[in-house]
Specification:
homodimer; 147 residues; alpha+beta; Arc Repressor Mutant, subunit A; Alpha-Beta Plaits; 2 domains; four-stranded antiparallel β-sheet; 5 helices; elongated; DNA-binding; Transcriptional regulator, AsnC family (chains A, B); AsnC-type_HTH_dom (chains A, B); Dimeric_a/b-barrel (chains A, B); transcription (chains A, B)
Chain lengths: 147, 147
DNA sequence: TGTGAAACTGCATCGTC
DNA sequence: GACGATGCAGTTTCACA
């Protein structure tokens, strides 16, 4: 994990569909060398996958909320969570609440209906997202700013 | 936005580095046709980008937390947020808190140090992530399960 | 919009250092 | 670990439906 690996991670975090050739030009290294480094980063699990970022609003989902949840019935609640397409992220947390959910729904009404279904399992505290300042900031400091 | 577009979105959300040829085989359509649909989905903003998913723990970041934050000094707090590499996501929210942050740090100690810096701007309620059940569930119902 | 064919470009692989 | 060369695979483009 040297500076070049960090550059590769930074570039591919920005644009996962960049070609290896284009990367090899940016970092002034041969194409097979970059391919080999990429392969190793994937194998080590530093790169866990590649995802397209989809726009919720363009897909008719206009409401995003974070829901803190408290339940005594973890097993059933997690099964409910797996089966609920509204729940995009599901975390176990410390503190007075034991779960945190990121929920994406069409409207405020569909969020309300979802929360009512949740209340079979426990109680919640909901924080509706008004706007997103930024999301998914890179975990790696850029090798340098020139690329 | 027909069934085929949904299939494309579902596939590319799973693996953003899949080749167009491979996709065109999966959905039984010619490769130029898939290229054209992809181009349109990008242009319309349905696909907002492509990202590599990096493993925080493999990069030495072992602590993740969600922080609810209340400040009266929004402008300065947002500038602080932009400049803080610990803050991965930053949302404006409704309710008694006006921000929600996803924070990724090396250890509990570095999280603590970060929170102390935050307290120049207001007060917080912190929820430490113990484990992740799932993250980034697809926003599109699969066209069908056979792919 | 979708297709098939052809020219072009990028990638996997191998031998070399 | 990285490089250069090469054959194969994927992409772009275009005429046609």
């Amino acid at each position: 994990m040297d500076r070049i690996d960090h550059q590769i991670l930074s570039i591919i975090h920005e644009n996962a569909r960049i070609t290896v050739s284009e990367m090899s030009r940016k970092i002034a290294m041969s194409q097979p060398a970059v391919t080999e480094r990429l392969r190793r980063l994937e194998e080590q699990g530093v790169i866990a996958g590649y995802r397209a970022v989809l726009s919720p609003s363009k897909l008719g989902k206009h409401t995003t909320a974070f829901v803190l949840f408290k339940t005594n019935n973890c097993k059933e609640f997690e099964a409910f969570g797996e089966a609920s397409p509204e729940i995009v992220d599901l975390y176990r947390t410390s503190g007075e609440y034991n779960y945190l959910l990121k929920v994406v729904t069409a409207t405020g009404e569909t969020l309300e209906a979802f929360l009512e279904r949740c209340h079979a399992f426990g109680f919640s505290s909901t924080h509706v997202v008004l706007s997103t300042r930024f999301e998914d900031k890179s975990l790696v400091a850029d090798g340098d700013g020139s690329n």
